[in-house]
Write a structure and sequence with these properties.
single chain, alpha+beta, Aminopeptidase, twelve-stranded mixed sheet, globular
Length: about 280
Amino acid sequence: MLITIYHDAATFLEKARPFLEFYEAESNLILGISLRMLHSNSLQSDLPYFITVEDEEGLVVVGVMTPPQSLMLYGERADCKVAIDLIVEELYMRDAYVSGVVAPVQMAHTFARTWSIMAKQPYKLQRQERIYVLTEVEEPTCNAGQLVLATEADLDLVTRWMYAFQVDAGLRGWGPETENIARRKINSCDMYLWFDGQPVSMGGRTRPTINGVGLNAVYTPPEFRRRGYASTFVAQLSQHMLDMGQKFCVLFTDLANATANSIYQQIGYKPVCDVDEYHFSAT
């Protein structure tokens, strides 16, 4: 097997793009982030790592890491241990800072265990997620209200709700950068609100790829929950994305949140892949 480390998105995508686009929904994180870095400097990282591991049959594992964010990996083969060993050895040799890993379940555990042994860093399962894909909206009962784009006037609210979303989800989060990220999403017309006399729910558009787009930061404040706002909002936002020409929408959900998983399936989202996220402790 051959491992290659790239430090620019263009060279990486020249090699990995056909593979990533073949598994476009499952690899949405890696493909979407790579495309964003190809076209802009919105992701700040001292030294991004783009990774491919291949053998005579083709690509086995691909990955991207923008420190201090977690390493993201994807591969389709059942047994990727040799490829994972190569990635661990290469990153360790380069003294890379690896804060965590996000990958399909078995791959994530294999990397976490192997990196923990090599780097002598304990690991912890932080989050178990499911990737859902929607190609057609199954409309829920429509609540009152309308879908609106967030504007600069909504910056304070969006910032507060984005921070609350991170806390609710138990995410590592953006910290002090939350306001800047909220402003960028508003300025790029990527943040939406459900408005029923006042904003009652929020969600963002993220990581557009050739055929699909991700939805993220879906949040409804506690005082507006259990009224059907989340179902209506996500259904309308998903339909809006399809109407804009996307062939599918992608969502990541926390498997611990049974309510969200049920809501998304009722709307028409279908499960395609489970992923785990592990975090490493400093030695």
